[in-house]
User: Fold these one by one.
Assistant:
Number 1:
Amino acid sequence: MKYSEYSVVVIGSGAAGLYAALKISQQIKLPEGILLISKSSLGISNSIYAQGGIVGVVHQNPDDNIESHIKDTLKAGAGLSDKKVTKEISEASDVVINDLINNGIEFDKDEQGNITFTLEAAHSIRRILHSGGDATGKGITEGLARAVRADNNIHILEKTMAVELLISSDKECKGVIIYNKQTEEHEIVYSSAVILATGGAGQVYKYTTNPNGATGDGIALAYEAGAVIQDMEFIQFHPTALALSPDSKNRFLISEAVRGEGAKLINNMGEEFMIKYSEKKELAPRDVVTRAIYTEMQKENSPNVFLNATLIGEEKIARRFPTISARCRENGIDITKTPIPVAPAAHYTMGGIKADVEGRTSIKGLYAIGETACTGFHGANRLASNSLLECVVCAYELSDYLSFTNLNTPNVIDEGIKKMIDVYSRSISGEEYNSDELKSELKDIMWENVGIIRTEKSLFKAKEEIEKLQKEFKRRRKCLNQGEYEYRNMLTVASLIVEGALRRKESRGAHCRKDYPETLPEGLHSNIDKLNEKGLCYVE
Ligand code: FAD
Ligand code: SIN
């Protein structure tokens, strides 16, 4: 097997991975350079689809303050957000967002040249910066990708997937095994620091706003390596994804900012209904709006409700929501005149690899940032636009931390690593699975049984069916193609979500157990250590 050596390996090219690679290169002189691996083309990720914006308690917005942002975040998090982490991230936002601006990222401004701020659900004031109206993710990701491509210290490998972490016998991360989709070859990359920035796992659900690549790979890899995984039961279902037909599964998002600017939800009878569910109506926390829509859909036996954006006015719609207007127009909907059919879809993975704000995980040498990580910032329900903020703050803080770390540790290839390399050196025989079909079966199970509303019965049903799929797939460690690797990882992540959901015998934030309607007063994180050696691990 071919091998290479880098001081730092960054896996993933969304906002977290791109910004981490850039900051590390700007801050640290590295003898062996930085490798950035992405299974997509550079920048293709959840990040690029972000619409609403990025939270920033910045000096350009004197009306805002840290305490107010902390209060809103903790309230949305339903007693599970970590206060210390929330404070650290909020306090860092001014420096980090202004560093993005200094690195060429542009946010929308008014005619006087002042940054404009929008409002989203459960924020008590306008504090969300946006770019290109409703194309914030594109603005940030494309700007960072340009800077990364221009940086000679960063070696980029696109269409290349990380498939297993190299863990030494003394449980340190020493690198990663990668699979090149084009050459169909596996390679070993040794490194003193491996950074997982692989995003979320929306694709384990039938309906999702996430693109195809969001299969939770980083979470599965870290789990198999023995890292602690936290809060996987908390999957955020965005209330308003464009619901053209039950067959449209990867759903285009209709940003919360549309409600922030005055759009109203109506049922099939044309009646506004949010007041029945929350005095905050359309601007209640996301989980509340999602359950309200779900209830209306059940009552009417309908696949969607509607979002009436005509109330916003043509001029504002054109200026603030050009991407959403264009996408709806392509599908025959003029949003200045007609209500938009919407329904909830899996959107954000609140849980993930337990990490601190500097990205440190429970394994030495392994770091996790962005949606794949769980710092405790989002608790049981993420506040809108806090995610991009967490991505960039943790990337920034990690780079700072690494600048004080020895990144030149020699690679000792011990017995543990030798064994792993052995598995990937052998050729494998056997049928090639139809991974699209298998993924689709898993997504149906998750949507039906581990979705917006859960019960012990539905969760046990999912557990049983997933175990059956795992047996049929024979938990291949080395796979034949990217689709198989993704399916392998999705099975692990789905099991972790079910495990977390079964353990949490209460309703809290995005986790709604019909059989346990009460939220207990104190939140406790659900840490999942590797279940046991025979549990979810690969069998040869
Ligand atoms: P991603 O941006 O998802 O990037 C992950 C990267 O890792 C990708 O490049 C992927 O190809 C790569 N990758 C994955 N697995 C592997 C592997 N095994 N090997 C190699 N590479 C791999 N948040 C906000 O704060 N504000 C918003 O307005 C907002 N709007 C959103 C709208 C939509 C439609 C969606 C889906 C999300 C939105 N979010 C928003 C959430 C936010 O965009 C994401 O949480 C955030 O961008 C995640 O960034 P990331 O860098 O952690 O992961
Ligand atoms: C949106 O624009 O509604 C999504 C914002 C987010 O996910 O934070």
Number 2:
Amino acid sequence: MPEHTSSIVNDSLDALYDDGSFLPDLKDGTRKKAFTSLVSILSTPNSVNKSFLRIALENGKVVRIPAFRVQHNNILGPYKGGIRFHESVSEDEVTNLASLMTLKNALHQVPFGGGKGGVVINPREYEDKDLHLICKKYVQYFSEIIGPDKDIPAPDVGTGDREMDWMMGEYKSIRPGSNYRGSFTGKSVINGGSLGRREATGKGVYFTFRYMLHDFVNGQQKWLEERENIFAKTALDHSDKDLTMAIQGFGNVGSVTALEAHKCNYLNNKIVAVSDRNVTLYNSDGLDIPALVKATSNHNGDLPVNEDELAAADIKAKVMDRDDVLSLNVDVLVLAALEDQVHKDNVGDVKARIIVEGANSPVTGKADKILSDQGVIIIPDILANAGGVIVSYFEWLQGRETQFYTEEQVITKQFDKMKETFDTVLPQFFGGPHPLRQNCYIHAVSKLSTVLYRQGKLY
Ligand code: GLU
């Protein structure tokens, strides 16, 4: 587990250790021993699986591609988490992401543990046939450790329903007669996927933000006025002033978050900037988000990169450098690209007072501390981006029952589940001393610790 995650987990365990009402049967020496076990269990993965996939490429070359599946913890249920295709994938990164899945599932009461997979490739550089073979080989190599009641992968950066369909197809061939529908989630709807799964993460990211800034504080004028913090100020201001927003990343998460923010009538959102791997597009009067979504889908997933492309799509925006999105003078910055985007060297440029983590780990530990000390509100990944895994859980359930919900039912169930978490975590956050991330961790760690204790794993 990287230093940042493990230090918040350890701080959470310290807070729980000092709280005598938490696991009160554990006293003195026994308490100490149990908490020492907890530190070691939660800070290390149960297993790290690595392979080199041997792939005969369409261009005639034969390559060996590193691939991982890390299983962090399964005390709450089968391991669960995406498979990422990206050239920066490493054992450390996948291990960190697997531990975040354990915490995310515990926080939202999803009955799964935490896992993650990764393949070290840039999928844009491969032919479709190569990608198909990579998916099949991944399943062949890890077939002993994955499965509907063991470890259930899903899409992540660089993968989507096409890859999950291929992988499930391979799993079905290797394990005929198994409950193969539950072996992967994030599949296409025709292949047993859930309606609403593709949009679930982005919708959940925006819903988390809206719930905090609007629903949770609605009608609490006095409560807000008594509080001298950035959140209270922004929540009070939003009703008569624009809430300016910049969104880093315009893929499956960022583009859906942008559309939701654009459509929302509860807050005066004005999305002034979006970015992707090539550019930042800026318009101080607000960007035409539906037109941008249409333009990217006609452009291989990329935003328009120059005046000509913008004119062809009838979009008014200034073209800026990719990383300029981070330093714009906006109220809200949504980070929906990759991890480690705000770090010690650029944190000083960030002007937004509210940051929403759509991606996993987009703010490094050092930057997180600096921003939190300045009173910046960071809505953390494990709270904000859990929509994907929550709907994955619904997909897994629907596959078991072979009964499928309507899209509306899925969205309602997703938001209800997220609301339950917000209503537990937010009052503690607003009434207490810890940053929101720490509150979420305390909640997740207390659930994991209680279950570990009750299953007799701490002796
Ligand atoms: N990759 C997504 C995440 O990081 C979804 C995982 C899942 O659906 O299992 O939360």
